[in-house]
Amino acid sequence: MSEAPSLTVNGHVRALPNDVAPNTPLLHILRNMLGLTGTRFGCGLEQCGACMVLVDGQPVQTCTAALDSVVGKRITTIEGLTGGDGERHPLQQAFLDEQAGQCGYCLSGILISAKALLDRNPNPTRSEIAAALDDNLCRCGSHVRILKAVERAAETLRAGG
Amino acid sequence: MNDTVKLPASLTTNPRLDRWIKFEDDRTVRVASGKVEIGQGIATALTQIAAEELDLPLERVTLLSGSTEFGPDERYTSSSLSVMVSGASIRLVCAEVRALLADQAALRLNCSPDDLAVVDGAFVKDGATTGLDYWDIAPVLDLSRAPTGSAKPKSPGTYRFVGRDVPRADLPDKVTGAGETYLHDIYPAGVLHARTLRQPGPRATLAALDEDAVRRASGDAALRVVRRANFVAFISADERKAEAAAVYAEENAKWSDLRDYRGSEQEGSWLVGRPAERREFGAPKSDTEGAADVVEATYTRPYIAHASMGPSVAIAQYDGETMTVWSHGQGMHPLRRNIADMLGLDPDKVVCHHRHGPGCYGHNGADDAAADAAIVALALRGETVRLQWRREEEFAYEPVSPAMSVTVKVALDAAGNPMDWTQEIWSATHVQRPGSGSGYLLASEALENPPPPVAVTDPPEESGGGSTRNAVPLYRIPAHRIEHHLVTEGPVRTSALRGLGAPTNVFAMECMMDELAARAGKDPLEYRLALLDDPRARAVLERTAAMADWTRRGPGGPSGDGAGKGLGIAFARYKNMAAYSAVVVAVTVADEVRLDHIWSASDAGLVINPDGARNQLEGGIVQAASFALKEQVKLAGDGIASRDWDAYPILRFSEVPPVDVELIGSPDDPSLGMGECTVGPTCAAIGNAVSHALGRRLYDMPLNRERIMTALLA
Predict the structure, then answer these.
(1) Among the partner residues B176, B184, B654, nearest to A40 by beta-carbon distance
(2) B27-59 b/e with 16+ CB inside 10 Å = b?
């Protein structure tokens, strides 16, 4: 008998129902099975980025990523960006400091993309940030503030914040 | 006291103070609004207004928004009216209730109300606490009576919260992924998931649907199907299985009476000459006698999608007596009436609650999804139904913003100034919000007795018009008129999107102003200023030009490497009665338009939350740039063919330029709605910048690669 299915999400091993199909999209598991609704459904076609999480540090669109492609990997969702003590990640704080968002529906995915960028490039230029966020759509036109917020977070992180 | 105060419309239609304000047991005050948060920051701005008048810290004020159960009916959140109407109402209610509380406290303390100050909701006299606070006194006040508007609100000079940058109350949850932030995130215990099979058009008939095959394809042997005439929904405890059912059903259902679209119908130019109601406004028939020259040009825009980031969703429950609906639509009171009408329920037995959704910018699929959920809940009494549209359903079935064709004809005097201006508009209606008299909830057309065809209307001119919005020039022109052809049968359902007809009318008018300036050999800024008398209009243009260093503007046209640099300017006052805005855009044009920088100054009078307002100005600019450069709904086959983000591209991060905005109005002027004021000027300034860069004009939005190539080869 095989082991009960599980995933490592935000540092915790989370058990899944025994009958979960291996091709179940990660987004469905996060939202409908684990109650992690901060990752959002946008298009289901990997075209908008609203459903991004980090899988072993890489941004992945979860609307199509199958369960069996992420088993055994480290998954970080928007909820996992916040520290265990409830302290906001410098990116989250920077988005608040810049008031970078309107409807906010795209922000989880954008924060995840930005986290992946700053992890690999702590000092990105404005155009590098924009390029890194090009897989994320924002309909409200909050782009300018979002770019500033990522720059601000990068500064904070470089200063050891 | 003045008993003849003209009350805002919202107060006359909701004449009970207790619909607006409630003192809670936890020493907070709940203020209610019919206007809803759609990402524009209105909840925060209204809280600031209430806290200001009540002398309370912001954290003691909560805002209840969009509740048919407890809050006022303010119809839809639209037309940049929320601060002007709901804000003005809340200001008067809070000032009046504060005065009533102070009168009572003074009676008990045997002093004059003027002797009392308020600190954190507690009455203070001569610097000492009195032992009385709002919550002690509120229970004896009769708040069921009508507001009189007789209490004098605070003067702007004394404001502590209004006019300050206050962080948005809703944003922390949106950056941390907090639970239940959006309606989409709410999964009540035991919830059933529903998806629909959409009727492809209002007259399409479902000829065949094999429900057993759908059930097998869904993987849920217990899949439930709610079917009424041409409305079908699939319901499962497993969301994926409901989705699979809908996907299979759409591929396999047989419909008759489908419409067949040809590509030409997707263009604004298709509208010209179609059956239409003709309306004329302004000066009598054009008389160009004595004109030195007559100039005419036609500008168009295609159909534009709201294209919200998330598809519409709704939750509904019917307990056999009351229908309760949760929706992210823009008006909960209209939704209640519309659902009651559609389902034959008593409106008093329908309750609608607003919850946050993805930004909508107008009338998207949210109301229709709520209607769908209510139909399903009615059939599944006692269940909680969560119905979500599929992505392709949102693109294919949301009401889109109408395409337009605008012909501007100008007679010029010997000095090259306009002496007669005609703006001739062809457009389908801009408002088919359900319950407005011109539209229905989408599903009602699929049910057993479809409602009669709508009488096509457009918003009246005194509300700013629809297709005619911003078609009257503010420039000094001796005679001007609008010829409006309200196309009575467009190819697709159309309704409100940010700015209604303003973006296209401003594009046409302000592009023409540049053409006229060029003919007169004048600088576009100077040409406009010479024809503008309103000092506030002049001020936004002059300030924007200074921000952009306008005087550096060269002759334009292609440079040595083939790429052209262009600088364009445009101006409008939204609806000719809301905020003033000017925009300057710098572009580089090769085979595509690259936005290099955008500057804008606006005057919105008293601004409640300047940072929130700047956020709206910036957002309007970026969204308008996306409209102008990239967006077009495609029509093919039996309906809208652009059903995903590849087929309907919008502006991406690497395409967004630096944007500088300033608010330059005076707090002593009344608040002017500003959520939509940058949209028209941005479209037009882009048009003018592209024309400057290319040395020739593009008349048809979107100004994309295909259109640039066509213009260059012409």
Answers:
(1) B184
(2) ebbbbbbbbbbbbbbbbbbbbbbbbbbbbbebe
Torsion over CA: A85, A89, A92, A95 (sign): positive
Looking at chain A, the domain(s) classified CATH 1.10.150.120 span 90-158
Take residue B446 and report the two structure tokens written for it.
């699929």
DSSP H helical ranges for B467-523 = 502-520
Contact B602, B665 (CB under 8 A): yes
Q: Give the Å distances, CA to CA, from B284 to B216, B421, B495.
A: 67, 11, 30
pLDDT tens-digit series, residues B134-146: 999 999 999 999 9
Q: Where do you find CATH 3.10.20.30 in chain A?
A: 6-81
Q: Is domain A90-158 in CATH 1.10.150.120, yes or no?
A: yes
Does B515 lie in the same domain as B376? no
Would the CB atoms of A103 and B356 count as touching at under 8 Å?
A: yes
Q: Are B332 and B411 found together in one domain?
A: no
ipTM value:
0.98
Q: Which two tokens stand for residue B198?
A: 């959409």
CATH architecture type of domain A6-81: Roll (3.10)
pLDDT digits (tens, 9 = 90+) for B166-197: 999 999 999 999 999 999 999 999 999 999 99
Residue ranges of A 123-152 with Cβ closer than 8 A to chain B: 127, 129-131, 133-134, 136-147
C-alpha to C-alpha distance for B270 and B399, rounded to whole angstroms: 19
Residue A28 makes CB contacts below 8 A (sequence gap 6+) with B239, B240
Predicted model pTM = 0.97
Q: In this complex, is the C-beta atom of A21 within 8 Å of any C-beta atom belonging to chain B?
A: no
